[in-house]
Design a protein that fits this description.
This protein has about 375 residues and is α/β, with parallel strands linked by helices. Helix content is about 40%, strand content about 15%. Strand 2, helix 4 and strand 3 form a beta-alpha-beta unit. The longest helix is centred in the last third of the chain and has 19 residues, at about 255-275. The two termini are about 15 Å apart.
């Protein structure tokens, strides 16, 4: 095989993006303004929700959503350990206690059975992470939450264009938190969004994202604005700039086309890897009306593999193939072990030892996928 250089990820930036950024720079208004507002409206329209609040990043989106539902000292929040640490850290910053839950072995999303076992009178919220773009079992989680009047927050960092019951994630009753980091299916380089159908909650989150000020800077400094403003409560500085927003607007225009390309690459991976007896491929089994966004394509190594996951990572690097591990479970990280004690999550720990994310991005070719698959098959 002739060696190819295939990065783990690469953002697809439409050619129309650079001229639009130039227009923003020339306008003299480069922070939160009309373009940020337009992006919020277009994103909300795309997924069919009433309110989108564009913010600096996905971590900020989580922090705002947690704060909005009243998470604070003395509360417990049920959350999968199998997620990026920002999902956990924002709980801690509000003075609450994360309660780590195991995952379902097929979907790799939070296990409703473990959630039910760990609900207590102190449980304030359940955080549902749609891992890799797979819709979690929201129906069962929502049933438990409704019964006990517990909030559900959806970590949709991987879930742009994920569907549950024929509806896009972020269009339902819960607060949903999106990330537009450089690796995501839709990117603004850095950025995030909180979506909600609750008008009053949306207004509160918007003010919370801008210091708790009653009027945004755009309103204060535009021709129709006023210098007067009122701080209604102490908030944060989490706004998205117009420069970021125009990147997102151009990404939305090609979102359907990008998804089609991503699906074709996924199908190619399955075609090339399905016969390997040492591999566990991600499940494509879903309830009717559910759709996977395929933010990540993960493989898992069986015990029959000739090498382990860590060795495979290093070997693929030698062949010019970039990979990543999603995720190192948080309950195994030093700070959380020291602070919350030892936790046993058998499925999470088993999956972590064997999982690896392969390259997946819109500008990949079928030849790139074939090369990755051929190297993987030969090594394991």
């Amino acid at each position: 095989m002739k060696k190819r250089e295939i990065p783990f990820t690469k953002p697809h930036i439409p050619e129309s993006t650079l001229p639009e950024i130039g227009k923003v720079l020339k306008s003299g208004w480069i922070t939160t303004g009309q373009k940020a507002k337009e992006f919020e409206q277009e994103f909300a329209k795309f997924i069919n929700t009433k309110n989108g609040i564009a913010v600096a990043n996905g971590t900020a989106a989580l922090h705002l959503a947690y704060k909005a539902v009243g998470i604070g000292p003395g509360d417990e929040v049920l959350v999968p350990s199998f997620t990026f640490c920002s999902t956990i850290n924002m709980i801690i910053h509000l003075g609450a206690t994360p309660v780590f839950c195991d995952i379902d072995e097929k979907s790799l999303c939070i296990d409703p059975k473990d959630v039910e076992r760990k609900i207590t009178q102190q449980t304030k919220a359940i955080v549902v992470v749609h891992f890799a773009g797979m819709p979690a079992d929201l129906t069962e989680i929502q049933r438990m939450a409704n019964k006990r009047k517990i909030a559900v927050i959806e970590d949709a960092a991987h879930a742009f264009m994920t569907k549950h019951n024929n509806h896009y994630i972020g269009s339902g009753r819960n607060l949903a938190c999106f990330s537009f980091y450089a690796t995501k299916n839709l990117t603004t380089a850095e950025g995030g969004m909180v979506t909600t159908n609750n008008k009053h909650l949306g207004e509160y989150i918007r003010m919370l994202s801008m210091h708790g000020i009653s009027k945004h800077a755009w309103n204060r400094y535009s021709k129709k604005g006023t210098w007067k403003y009122d701080v209604l409560f102490p908030g944060y500085k989490y706004n998205m700039t117009d420069i970021q927003a125009v990147i997102g607007i151009e990404q939305l225009k090609v979102a359907q086309k990008s998804r089609e390309k991503r699906l074709s690459l996924i199908n190619r991976y399955f075609e090339k890897l399905a016969t390997n007896p040492a591999l566990i491929l991600p499940t494509r089994e879903m309830k009717p009306g559910n759709e996977h966004a395929w933010h990540l394509f993960t493989i898992r190594l069986k015990d029959t593999s000739k090498i382990n996951r860590d060795e495979l990572f290093e070997k693929l690097k030698e062949f010019g193939i970039g990979t990543s591990v999603h995720f190192i479970p948080n309950h195994m990280q030093s700070y959380y072990k020291k602070t919350y004690g030892k936790v046993s999550l058998p499925i999470t720990e088993q999956v972590y030892k064997s999982i690896l994310s392969l390259p997946l991005y819109e500008d990949m070719s079928f030849e790139d996928v074939d090369y990755v698959a051929e190297v993987v098959n030969s090594l394991i």
